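Hey all, sorry for the wall of text incoming. These are the two entities for the joint prediction.
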Amino acid sequence: MNTFTNARARYERDRSEACIASAETLRPVIGVHFEIAEIGRAALDAVALQWGSSKFDWDAVYQHHRGIDAFKFAIWFENSLCGLGVATTSGQSVKLRFLEGSPDINCPLKGRRILIALDVAANYGQRRGKRNLILEPINETLIALYENVYGFKVVRTRKDPPYCIKGI
Amino acid sequence: MFAAPKMNQAFQQALRSERKLPPQPEPTYGQPRPAVGFFAALSPSQKASALGYRGEENHGEPEFAR
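and here's what came out:
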C-alpha cells in the first residue's frame, strides 16, 4: 500500500473504533442500545423519510466535508435515525462542526445526542493524537450547557465568532 | 512627521493580536493518545447533568441551514 492509502486506512480505522468505543461506553449509562456509524446513503435518505425536514441541508454538508479527516457520523436506534454530526481535525484539535437531532419528541436519545456526539468526536480526536475538542460554531442559546454541564471554556475575540474549547 | 506610520503600525499590531491563528495543518500520522472519550472525564455532577439533559442540541454552520 502507498502512503496515502495507509493514511486513509488509519483514518477509517480510527473512526470505526471511535464509533464502537463510544457506543459501548454510553449504552449502559444511557440505557438505550443505540448504534453509531459513518453517514451513508441510508442516513441521508432517512433525513427526508423519517425527519421530514431538517435544520441543515445534510446532502450539502456531506458533499462539502469530503476531506480524509472528516468524520460524518449517524446515531441510530434500531431503524430510527436519531442524530447526525460532523467532526473535522486540524493541528491539536478535533472540532465538532455540526450536530442535529431527530425532531421526533419521542426520540429515546433526546438530549443525549450531544453527549454521544462529544464522546465519539473526543474518541476520534484522541486516536488522532488531538489535545482539544472545539465546538464551532456555537449555538449561543446553549452556552450555559457547554460551560456548566460539559466544562467547556467559551473563547470570544473581537474579530472572530466565539467558540468553545476543552482539553481531551 | 512619523505619527502616521506609527499609528498604522499600532493599528496593525492591534488587529494581529485580536485575530485568531489560522488552523494548523493536520498531521497525517498523529501519535495516538489514550482513547477514553469525553464522558469518562466528566465529574460525577457533570455526568448526572449530562444524562438528565433533554433540551436543544443542534448546532452547525449557518451557510448550510435550511
